[in-house]
Write a structure and sequence with these properties.
two-stranded antiparallel ribbon, single chain, 9 strands, mainly alpha, three-stranded mixed β-sheet, globular
């Protein structure tokens, strides 16, 4: 601290300061503060305190080494000088350990950790041209290529968040002066040498393991190089399928030989379990070539991020799952329908894929699924607008094309949405709903303009399609709250009420209207074709109706509506009987919570947002019947949902079991049985529709 009363003296025009030790003064000043109390000043508040960095503190200063132990960080040159690294004729078990350890760190990087704390803790990668062992050198160069290809693929897809992926390179040049084709050729040459050695050694497991790893890296590089291209050809994706089958064979060999590599045993220094070195958690006894703190000074001056290195066996399982998902990605190339792409993307997202496979699917299928031709075909199959017919006049076709161009952006955003992680999808859905609000207005104008051009009464073709996807987005937004555990149990009943009364009812009505419009379009086309053949226009045969294309979706939506109605009435009955914990009246503002949960729907023109008074009126009307009657009505809802879901196929079997279990429970509650403890909600069968859990021993009869 500088004494303010003493002026600074100058020598050689340089100021000098008189510093005073303030440690004792500081301790004397804070002795009256209790544990947890803070002293606030106008110039140093909580923000400054949280942003401050304590210099030379190993926990706060990333450039400060942890000197509490005798451990010394070894660079590549020092490790070579000390004989810790082998550059020529690396033993097979050592090479297996180096490759497996590097692949484990590659997986850790793909799970959101930094390159400096994962992949580039391998000292061999700091000097990839230094090893004289050909297999090790080519592998190190191939890792650089893999990093570059993966990074480009992720940047093209742009579906990662800061918790998914860290793109910083920390000064490492990821693109060595070797092309992808040359790198693949070098890997093939090493494969041939290793294959000859494996044949000469007559089934040596270590030689076969090294061969399998080099071949897998080559296949992975080829597949990623094909998937990152925006103009994939069907032949290239067919080749990917063949390569992926070979990759699975290699991964099985790698999985069987992962224990042969040096450092594959759990524990370090004789201790089983994980070891913590400079904020990095290591699950296995690692080789000397892996230095966790070698890049410590490259990290930003913030609190070091918790980094856990994957176990080698777990990393191999990660690659197996990735290859299986790549097979699904390759099938998306043939999709030319927006609705098919949307279903595939949603199903793929629900399976919890890794970031690389999510990004690959975006590059392969997003552009094809949201193209103008794909949207044109989707609208034709959904409601059959006359303006999209080849017989329509040019003015109507131009209006339809303008609407398709306007719909391209929200359609692409809807497909891109499924590429993000599940937590981020809900936030982006709220923004996407605003896009669909504008699209609904455009759709109404397009319907009016097309009707005026064709000289027919206006029909809501485009508006029905826009409303359908708006409602689907609303349903996904509300159901995502259950998956992310955002709702308290006492909030469930008005979320399910909104789904029951507003969302699913509108969805069923919208699909019914789309079916009617499609039937009219088919009948009109049939009448025109019959008139052209016979020279006389005939009336369409109303009895010969085509099958409803949206019938299956309508049945599933009816089942979901019955499920939501069952939960609404069951939860309302549980709340009336005091079986669900509710907030204290002095702290309860249900209206505020209701408006907060559904605030994202306030700007939508259709459906109009439901007001809180409407919900209270519905709850009071249903609650006036008594809890036993509520349980009985809820049981009927679940029974009807179970019947509808039973005919839906294998995919709806878990929901059918959930509906049946809840039906049995509510029959018991309607008969007068009451649980001794509060019920719980189990989301094992479904992440959106839980099983209300009560055991037989917890029930008592009044």
């Amino acid at each position: 601290m500088e004494k303010p009363e003493e002026p600074s003296s100058t020598t050689d025009n340089k100021p000098s300061h008189n510093w005073v030790e303030i440690t004792d003064v500081f301790k004397e000043s804070v002795k009256d503060l209790q544990l947890g109390e803070l002293l606030h000043d106008d110039l140093f508040g909580l923000f400054e305190a949280m942003s401050a960095i304590e210099m030379m503190d190993p926990k706060m200063d990333a450039g400060m080494l942890c000197n509490r132990g005798a451990r010394k960080i070894t660079s590549f040159e020092q490790a070579v000088a000390d004989g810790l690294l082998t550059l020529n004729e690396v033993p097979p078990h050592m090479l297996l350990g180096i490759i497996d350890g590097t692949l484990a760190r590659l997986v850790s990087w793909l799970e959101g950790h930094s390159l400096a704390q994962t992949v580039f803790t391998c000292l061999y990668l700091h000097r990839p041209y230094a090893p004289q062992d050909r297999a090790l050198k080519v592998f190190c160069l191939a890792v650089y290529k893999l990093l570059d290809v993966i990074k480009e693929l992720l940047h093209k897809a742009m579906v990662f968040e800061e918790e998914d992926f860290q793109p910083m390179q920390y000064g490492f040049h990821l693109n060595p002066d070797i092309s992808e084709q040359r790198m693949i050729g070098m890997l093939r040459e090493v494969e041939e040498d290793l294959h000859k050695k494996a044949r000469n050694k007559q089934g040596d497991p270590e030689s076969q393991g090294i061969f399998a790893r080099i071949k897998f890296v080559r296949i992975l590089l080829q597949v990623l190089n094909s998937l990152r291209k925006e103009d994939q050809q069907q032949n290239s994706l067919n080749d990917c399928q063949r390569l992926l089958n070979s990759a699975m064979e290699m991964l099985q060999i790698i999985k069987d030989s992962v224990k042969l590599g040096k450092g594959a045993r759990d524990g370090k220094c004789g201790n089983k379990g994980f070891c913590r070195i400079e904020g990095i958690i290591i699950g296995e006894e690692e080789l000397a070539c892996f230095e966790p703190s070698i890049n410590q000074r490259l990290l930003p001056p913030t609190f070091p991020r918790y980094t856990k290195i994957k176990k080698r066996a777990e990393a191999i399982e990660h690659f197996i799952d990735m290859v299986e998902r790549f097979k699904v990605v390759c099938k998306a190339q043939g999709i030319n329908s927006f609705h098919q792409a949307m279903e595939l993307f949603a199903e793929f997202s629900q399976s919890g894929p890794c970031l690389v496979s999510r990004s690959a699917l975006q590059l392969v299928g997003r552009n094809a699924g949201s193209s103008r031709e794909a949207l044109r075909e989707a609208l034709r199959n959904f409601c059959g607008p006359h303006a999209l017919s080849s017989r329509a006049i040019p003015t109507a076709r131009a209006t339809a094309d303008a609407f398709l161009a306007r719909a391209g952006r929200p359609a692409a955003l809807l497909l891109q949405l499924s590429g993000h992680n599940r937590a981020r999808q809900r936030d982006k859905l709220a923004v996407l709903l605003e896009e669909f609000a504008l699209l609904q207005e455009e759709a109404e104008r397009a319907d009016a303009a097309c009707a005026s051009s064709l000289g027919v009464p206006p029909k809501p073709h485009f508006a029905t399609w826009a409303l359908y996807h708006t409602l689907r987005g609303q349903a996904l937004y509300l159901l995502a709250g259950f998956e992310l555990e955002l709702y308290a149990e006492h909030e469930y009943y008005y979320v399910y009420w909104y789904l029951y009364e507003c969302i699913y009812g509108w969805l069923i009505s919208t699909l019914s209207r789309a079916d009617s419009l499609l039937q009219e379009a088919w009948n009109g086309t049939a009448a025109v074709s019959q008139g052209g053949k016979g020279g006389r226009r005939q009336k369409p045969n109303k009895t010969a109706r085509r099958p409803r294309p949206h019938a299956r979706d309508a049945v599933r939506l009816q089942a979901f509506q019955q499920l939501a109605g069952g939960y609404f009435k069951a939860l309302l009955g549980l709340l009336r009987d005091g079986l669900l914990q509710a907030p204290l009246p002095g702290f309860d503002r249900e209206r505020v919570r209701f408006e907060h949960r559904f605030g994202a729907f306030s700007r939508l023109p259709a459906p109009p947002p439901a007001a809180y008074r409407d919900f209270r009126a519905a709850a009071q009307a249903a609650g006036s019947q008594g809890s036993e009657q509520l349980f009985l009505c809820a049981g009927r809802h679940f029974a009807q949902a179970g019947q509808l879901l039973a005919a839906g196929g294998v995919g709806d079997a878990p929901l059918a079991r959930t509906a049946k279990t809840n039906f049995v429970l509510l029959r018991l509650l309607a008969a007068g049985h009451r649980p001794k403890i509060k019920p719980t909600f189990c989301f094992n069968e479904s992440k959106q529709f839980p099983v209300i859990c009560l055991t037989e021993g917890q029930l008592t009869h009044e």
